[in-house]
Amino acid sequence: MAEKSSAIIDDGLDNPSIREKRKPVRAEVCLCKAWILEWIDKRKTINLKYTSYYLKHAVEAFSSTYVSNGAFIQAAMESGFNVKPVEVNSVNAYFNMSFKRFEKHRDEKGIPI
Fold first, then answer.
1. Based on C-alpha coordinates, what's the Rg of the chain?
2. Which of 4, 27, 58, 88 is deepest in the core (most CB within 10 A)?
3. In sequence order, which residues have a C-beta less than 8 Å from that of residue 67 and are 6 or more positions away?
4. Is the pTM of this model over 0.90?
5. Residues of 18-38 as b/e, b for ≥16 C-beta within 10 angstroms?
6. C-alpha span between 28 and 21 (Å, rounded)
7. d(CA 59, CA 76)
8. Can you give the pLDDT at residue 17?
């Protein structure tokens, strides 16, 4: 899970360099949760293949709707995934996600991400 001191903001994981701290928009979180449920499976270990920032763009490509990085991270946490910051003070995160279904569908449909 994310460190207890890590809050989720619209930009992603909170860090001291971000001045404006808005919570993720609930509708965006719900859209991300639906996408995760449809295309992502859990695995035991953190997967370093894609960051939250890439995955938020995947949701946008599949839905033609803007979602924030923080909305994706919040959705992943609410869906029971573990969160690991990409690096210290990064707004981006990695998760214990398997991307096989997502990659198959993306590649079959030729969805550019």
1. 13
2. 58
3. 28, 31, 32, 56, 59, 60
4. no
5. eeeeeebbeebbebbbebbee
6. 16
7. 12
8. 67
